């Protein structure tokens, strides 16, 4: 590989990525990633978890073994960072081959740098396994589409399977989003067909194998998660409790207290929640559009402007006018569907916008040179009159300054949030180390943490009662090891009878209220209460997070 190409496609993207991590930092976008890291380390389970039902299929085993071998290293963050670096290099290689026939080397390096600053930097700043899966799968498809042949198809399939292992739904969505760009980069559907069909076949085979080999506990987790996602994630169903147990379930879901298997079930979710089309059309849909579209415009104005300019330029080309207009309409419909029916968080929005941007860029360039961009072909450079060139440079510089100011503000906010959360976690560890810790409502403390640092609450078991990990199959084994009961309610009743020095309850107000109600309730099939009622009394407030308090157990006769 010539040094100039190596510089543009490998050294430049890796250098920009490293500069972002060292200069601005790297922050977990959600609490999911820290939850996953703790499960693979065994900090919130009875032992290191080798597999979780929804994510990191096969990779969970690798991570648990790496943590067991060298526990001091942040293997979760290092693995995702390596895959994100690979995706970054692949996308730069796609852009380099696409633009090299049209730009001279200095202009090409400048263009690649601007692309990173406006459309890629956030992926490193706001870290998420969902971003990595989407970007790796999309980059693999686009890279292979430019390089026809068996090796390209095989490499694409392998990387798609790796992205699928991280998060299957993300790999499927990435294939859909990258398909238009792949066709344009390949030159035709016929040339892109082996890559797209090969990737689809690989994903289908992996999904089929997973469904045939899943355990009953995994199948039950998936069913419950799918049922609850329509409520807590997408707001598609409203509560309509019919029994006291249904009321407990609704309150549990509101507080993300999902670990009580006798209460939280697929059947209970179907019974306690209903789909109300009138409510969805009059309240939910307008609320989603009113909140998400302005955020999309505010956060990604630079990328949206580039997409609009490239789409306008591509639509002026007579042979592609109608297909390009259809492509723009399709992208708008996809984003609106995600924003209104499902959800469109930043970790999903920007990867999709990147795919849209690359597709429009491929459509904007002359097809003849797209089809004949073989290595060594110099192509023709894009020459603009001096005035237009100066206006273009000023516009790009202004766009970079505006987006840079927004990014710097986000960096400052994330850094402050990380500092508060690290102080709160240290406070929890200091107050509860070497005890059994029962936590609920503290999930926000796991946001904005560093992927490249191992966090811990100190020695001692941790029962995390809120969030999706609370109903992970590993939690039943943890409850059984501590109390002899695998059910959450029975296990917590046993812990409530122990001395205060043995168990530390760290809760927020609403989860504490629900927990007190649940410990004193008896659902159908459970034995009647034969002991005094349990009262959870608030105690000391954590200085770093005033919503969390130490609770004391009191028996009321």
TrEMBL record:
Signal peptide: none annotated. The keyword Transmembrane helix applies. The chain crosses the membrane at residues 73-95, 102-120, 126-145, 157-183, 195-212, 295-314, 326-342, 388-405. Keywords: Membrane, Transmembrane, Transmembrane helix. This is Glycosyltransferase RgtA/B/C/D-like domain-containing protein. It comes from Hymenobacter saemangeumensis.
């Amino acid at each position: 590989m010539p040094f100039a190409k190596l510089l543009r496609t490998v050294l430049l993207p890796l250098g920009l990525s490293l500069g972002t991590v060292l200069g601005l930092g790297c922050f977990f976008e959600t609490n999911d990633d820290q939850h996953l890291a703790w499960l693979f380390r065994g900090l919130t389970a009875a032992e290191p978890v080798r597999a979780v039902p929804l994510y990191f299929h096969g990779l969970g085993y690798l991570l648990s073994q790496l943590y067991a071998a060298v526990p001091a290293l942040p293997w979760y963050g290092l693995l995702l960072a390596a895959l994100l670096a690979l995706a970054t290099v692949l996308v730069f290689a796609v852009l380099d081959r696409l633009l090299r026939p049209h730009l001279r080397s200095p202009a090409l390096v400048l263009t690649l740098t601007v692309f990173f600053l406006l459309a890629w930097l956030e992926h490193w700043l706001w870290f998420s396994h969902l971003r990595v899966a989407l970007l790796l799968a999309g980059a693999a498809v686009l890279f292979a589409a430019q390089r026809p042949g068996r090796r390209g198809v095989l490499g694409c399939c392998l990387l798609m399977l790796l992205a699928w292992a991280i998060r299957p739904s993300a790999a499927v969505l990435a294939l859909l989003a990258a398909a238009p760009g792949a066709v344009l980069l390949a030159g035709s559907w016929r040339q892109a067909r082996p890559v797209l069909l090969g990737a689809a076949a690989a994903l289908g085979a992996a999904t089929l194998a997973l469904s045939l080999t899943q355990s009953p506990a995994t199948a039950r987790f998936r069913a419950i998660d799918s049922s609850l996602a329509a409520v807590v994630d997408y707001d598609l169903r409203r509560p309509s409790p019919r029994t006291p147990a249904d009321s407990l379930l609704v309150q549990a879901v509101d507080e993300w207290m999902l670990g009580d298997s006798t209460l939280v079930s697929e059947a209970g979710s179907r019974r306690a929640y209903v789909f109300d089309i009138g409510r969805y059309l009059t309240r939910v849909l307008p609320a989603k559009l009113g909140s998400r579209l302005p955020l999309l415009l505010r956060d990604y104005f630079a990328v949206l402007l580039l997409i609009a300019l490239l789409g306008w330029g591509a639509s002026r080309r007579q042979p592609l006018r109608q297909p390009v207009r259809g492509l723009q309409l399709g992208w708008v419909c996809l984003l609106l569907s995600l924003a209104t029916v499902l959800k469109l968080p930043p970790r999903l929005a920007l990867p999709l916008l990147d795919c849209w941007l690359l597709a429009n860029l491929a459509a904007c360039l002359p097809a003849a040179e797209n089809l004949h961009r073989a290595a060594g072909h110099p192509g023709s450079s894009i020459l603009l009159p001096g005035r237009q060139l100066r206006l273009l440079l000023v516009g790009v510089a202004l766009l970079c300054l505006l987006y840079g100011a927004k990014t710097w503000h986000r960096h400052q906010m994330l850094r402050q949030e990380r500092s508060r959360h690290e102080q709160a976690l240290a406070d929890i560890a200091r107050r509860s180390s070497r005890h059994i810790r029962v936590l609920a409502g503290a999930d926000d403390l796991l946001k904005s943490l560093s992927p490249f640092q191992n966090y811990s609450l100190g020695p001692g078991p941790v029962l995390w009662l809120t969030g999706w990990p609370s109903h992970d199959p590993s939690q039943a084994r943890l409850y059984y090891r501590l109390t002899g009961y695998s059910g959450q309610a029975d296990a917590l009743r046993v812990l409530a009878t122990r001395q205060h020095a043995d168990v530390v309850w760290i809760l927020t107000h609403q989860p504490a209220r629900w927990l007190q109600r649940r410990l004193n309730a008896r659902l159908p099939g459970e034995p009647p209460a034969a002991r005094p009622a349990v009262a959870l009394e608030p105690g000391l407030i954590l200085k770093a997070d005033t919503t969390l308090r130490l609770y004391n157990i009191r028996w009321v006769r």
